[in-house]
Known about the structure:
This protein is mainly α. It has one domain. The protein is 77% helix and 0% strand.
Amino acid sequence: MSILLTSILVGISIIAIIILTSKFKLEAFISLFLVSVFLAFAILPPKTIVNTIQQGFGNTMASIGFLIILGAIIGIALDRTGGTLSIARFILSKTGESRSAQALGITGFITGLPIFCNAGFIILSGLSKSLSSKSKLAMPFMATVLGCSLYSVHCLIPPHPGVLAASGLIKVNIGYLIVIGTLFAIPGSIAAYFWSKWITKGKEYPPSKDIEAETRISEENLPSAFLSFLPIVVPLLLIALKSLILMIDKGGQSLISRLFVIPGEPIFALSVGVVLAMLLTKNKSIASMNSIFSEAIVKAGPILIVTAAGGMFGMVIQATGTGESMGKLLAGTSIGILVPFLIAAVMKTAQGSSTVAIITTASLVAPMLSMLGLDSEWGRIFAMLSMGAGSMVISHANDSYFWVVANFSEIDPDATLKVYSSSTLIMGLVVFGCIWITSLFIL
């Protein structure tokens, strides 16, 4: 089959996923499965079809399964015990009520590291309404500050599913990605804060009327802020420490390197986080802990399945050779990391899911890396970050997170589009700009 026809079929398959998920509202897993099977039968040799589909699904599940489940357990434990609220109140006590929007953004950023953005927003939405009511700040502004702070880390940092799956496809060091992705997420969150503040200034957006949201968990039942921070901070420190040590000792032969090889592995680091999260529970019985584990597994299940299905679709695309052909066409164009950013941005804006956008982009870009001048350890990291930045652009009505932000903040879709959606555009552009400028000095 000619490469032109192959590329057309790959393009049709991507459009089919967009139409099935956004227009017909078909479940993402079913859409990805049907389109993957269609594309495989249309292009691949019959003997390789089943193996390719199984490998794509299985390899993705193997690389991200434990991390997603462990991250979900930490998130549920923080929610159930009031740990998230304790973190928020601690930060607010340091910033002051006059800076409640900044406090909310910091809270969202920190708690978003292990918690998926949808769950994080639902957990913290009551706090955002309470702070809006007390400070008389516009609710669309507060919702956007929270939504974008959670979203920035969701699109750039493991253990979030799209980033995890894509990093496996292009073979990125997860430890390095966590450290560097966190640094690039910061300017994105700050840009979204100032943009949303500016765009709501002078507009007649009312504050929230919800003044009871913050009192749903009584003060005396909240865990200490110190204990609440531990499940988030300790795993990140272990992973970051291992990555920094191996940057210095690339062979990993020193005593300190060997000491941190196992604890610094993301699976083991997050396992430590789970143990620390269990310390927050008042009732430490097996039944109480099983309740947290069960809820986490139930919530992680759909995410695991959809993400693995995305990996399956990605494997089929890789097997077609389309990415290699596109790479040859783009070789020598000197547009480097702009390619993964643009592909991810188009995919995200068209079909709504950041996870699907970043996995599909990784599948297309992986064979192009050498031709784009990105086939090095740092090149792969910057390609990965560029995809993450692209997957932020633009969250609008075809994105489930858009409706979480709108509905849980009780603001109308028009205001959400004007304030939140425009902020995701600014955030993605700023993050990519920072990535591009930094790459000029490193690549």
